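Homework help board

Subject: predicted structure for assignment chain

Our instructor gave us this sequence and asked us to write out the predicted structure in token form, then describe one feature. I got the tokens but I'm not sure how to describe them. Can anyone check?
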Amino acid sequence: MAEPKLIYKCQQCGYISPKWMGKCPECDIWHSFSEEVAAAGSRKLSLRPAKALSAHPLRLDEIESEGEPRHHTGLAEWDRVLGGGLTKGSIVLLAGDPGIGKSTLLLQALSRMAGNGAVLYVSAEESPQQLKSRAQRLGICSPDLFIYSETSLEAVLDEIDKRPPLVLAVDSIQTMYSRVLDVAPGSISQVRECASRLMRAAKETGIGVFIIGHVTKEGAIAGPRALEHLVDTVLYLEGDRTHTFRLLRAVKNRYGSTNEVGVFEMKENFRNEGKRPRRGPKPFPVAFGRAPQRSLRLRCGLLRRGHAPDSRRTSGACKFDWLGAAAPHQHGS
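My token output:
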């Protein structure tokens, strides 16, 4: 009996080498090769044929314009950033640091969108019981919001074929996998394959798709750069963990401007949209900051300790230059 042939496969991109290598020449990742047994024969996978978006080339003036039908999220701040709502057949990538509130904000938006039709929330990271607990904390109870705990892309696509939803949400794209590829979930090949097939499904069916993406320690979206090119909109949820406000901004938007910013306030049991802050009492001067094309009024608290010769001025959670517009009166303590 012949000995099995051993190969070394990169766990990030699937590159195969007959010998071990420290750095993958395809994706430039170090220490990503693992030893595997080569398959005896090629295995064919039955894939669904892709539907053609158009049967033949069309003249530009012959194409019927449907406008841009949109689904409102029920959150005015999010609709502002999207350019008026979620465009039919578009795919939106929502990224942010771990624990910043991506899933919480998305769950709240989906519950409001479920008032117009069925919404499917595919959670590959949390169980239905965990999502139910979060929904109760947020006061969410929607009969048309369906939870599907699944990591297989093929299972999700089959579910869409059986019961097409109005909106699909996938949390997260890095935990999904396709049986087409023999690499681990989260690898560059898997992320690219899952995102491209979700994008194809959105264009064919007209379903609006939200996908949540992880970020690296450098702040970039984990996975291939092609992920940001595939989607129609890329949103970032940002904020300081020690403060209640979160900012939602777009770095790419095919259906709207990238100069808008949405403000949300994180409370104990509800993520409320940030309202225009009123002028506080006299100990809190008001400064004005600019966030792309939206002016924000900030309430500043000033603290002064004597007149030490080596003292210096600092600011927290706000650019120091913005404080120049603050009221000149300082109230020490």
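Reply (TA_rk): Your tokens look well-formed. For the description, you could write something like this. Confidence is low (pLDDT under 50) at residues 42-46, 277-284, 327-333. That's the kind of observation they're looking for.
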